[in-house]
Amino acid sequence: MARPAVDRVRQTAYDVLRAVDQRDAYVNLLLPALLRDAALSGRDAAFATELVHGAIRLQGTYDVIIDELVTRRMQPGVRDALRLGCHQLLSMRVPGHAAVSTSVDLVRRNTGEPPARMVNAVLRRVSGRSLAEWVELLAPSRDEDRAGHLAIAYSHPRWIVAALADAVAHDRASQRVWDEVEALLAADNHPARVTLAAIPGRASVAELVEAGAAPGKWSEHAATLGSGDPAAVPAVREGRARVQDEGSQLVARAVADAELDGPDRWWLDMCAGPGGKAALLAGLADRRGARLLAADRQGSRARLVKGALSEAPAGRAEIAHQTGVAGVVVADGTTPPWASAAFDRVLVDAPCSGLGALRRRPEARWRRTPEDVTALVRLQRALLHAALDSCREGGVVGYVTCTPHVSETREVVDGVLEARSDALEEDARPLLSLVPDTGHGPHVQLWPHRHGTDAMFLALLRRTGR
Ligand SMILES: C[S@@+](CC[C@H](N)C(=O)[O-])C[C@H]1O[C@@H](n2cnc3c(N)ncnc32)[C@H](O)[C@@H]1O
């Protein structure tokens, strides 16, 4: 007998949570595939997506509640079913009896009868309080331990709350740092709207608006989709527009717009995969008669860049490369194959902890560790040194991350500048003159809760004589 659609929805959500736990699957890759396999679309797909994203994002809060109510060891999978049940009971408008009975059914089917009875009892107790009441009961008080309170209330690892608080305090000498951190953590728990970038010379914002998008808030290339599938937009299907956060567009554009004396012919995107900023830069380079070289250490990522730069306009499959492109190479930016001082503009969009884009990847906050940051900082410094070496005297280097972690942003830039006498930092803020509140400089720091963008960081460095 066919199972009711609602069970397929919850079974799909459960399968994604299991795969994330057991084999470190990425939600953004796995969920669309499992939705397809289960033939879920429309409201069912939206419900499954909310279940998966919400249960994983908020698992820090839900696990504290579960651990309060379950003292025995749980079989694998039972915790995931409880997280899904908690999310339906505490954060979605699913009637209590449906949330409990479908969770019990999931456990009965996937694990067995005794744990199903336990889940029934636990979820009935969960439903006795609201989310706010559970947080009030189980989290440390705000006054005694603000970071500990926020970590549970907003479901972030404590070390990330501390790192974000440090970044906010660094950015804004204000009495209200914790209020702002709270707004930031809340923003991380809301899915980002889909933003598109019209690639200059290939698509226009007007065209995207005609296809149902709204003009972006800050970037002249941006349009946002209220709902719906980006692939339904013809320019996206044809590779002339891409899904890209507005913050990413702004920092790429800033690197392209920084003032330059002398030639402006050769541009380098040193960490280009998968090619979002490279596509924008190549479009801008073409307008100026410049050429972009895009590099990435990983062959698979470099292939994605090639795809981003070579999508053929509709009906013209013979066009191999977007104009404005010098080439795409697989190269380690720290030991580059290109000549030193060869470029007029260099973008280093460094590999980073991604703490500024947590709202995009539900599992990311639980995967990262403070040790990752230590290893990344070494690589970021080496890449920034190499970028400065690759840039001619008088040229500009944009150092970009999608994390606000001070060790990966300000401290990398300060460390590199201290170590060399041939580079100066310039004020990057005038390059984003329409965007308010980007910090006290000279770098730019964007924020999800202030700007609605990922927390992109940009520092602008000028190569000087020694
Ligand atoms: C933050 S992502 C870049 C995103 C890209 N700029 C975009 O807008 O689509 C960082 C990239 O750096 C690459 N990478 C890591 N280490 C590298 C190295 N030593 N040299 C060059 N690329 C590297 C990674 O493979 C990854 O694709």
Can you describe what's shown?
This protein is 49% helix and 13% strand. The chain is globular. It has helices spanning 5-23, 27-37, 42-57, 59-69, 78-90, 96-110, 113-126, 131-138, 146-153, 158-171, 177-188, 205-210, 234-237, 246-257, 276-288, 299-310, 364-367, 370-390, 410-419, 448-451, and strands at 194-198, 214-215, 222-225, 241-243, 266-269, 291-296, 325-330, 343-349, 391-401, 423-426, 444-445, 457-463. The protein folds into three domains: 5-131, NusB-like (N-utilizing Substance Protein B Homolog, Chain A, Orthogonal Bundle); 139-188, no CATH class; 246-463, 3-Layer(aba) Sandwich (Rossmann fold). A hairpin with a 6-residue loop joins β2 (214-215) and β3 (222-225). Residues 1-6 and 312-320 have low confidence and may be disordered. The protein contains 20 helices and twelve strands. The protein is α/β, with parallel strands linked by helices. The strands form two sheets. Strands 5, 6, 7, 8, 9, 10, 11 and 12 form an eight-stranded mixed sheet that branches. Strands 2-3-1-4 form a four-stranded antiparallel sheet. The structure holds S-adenosylmethionine. S-adenosylmethionine binds at residues 248, 270-277, 295-298, 301, 332-334, 349, 351, 383.
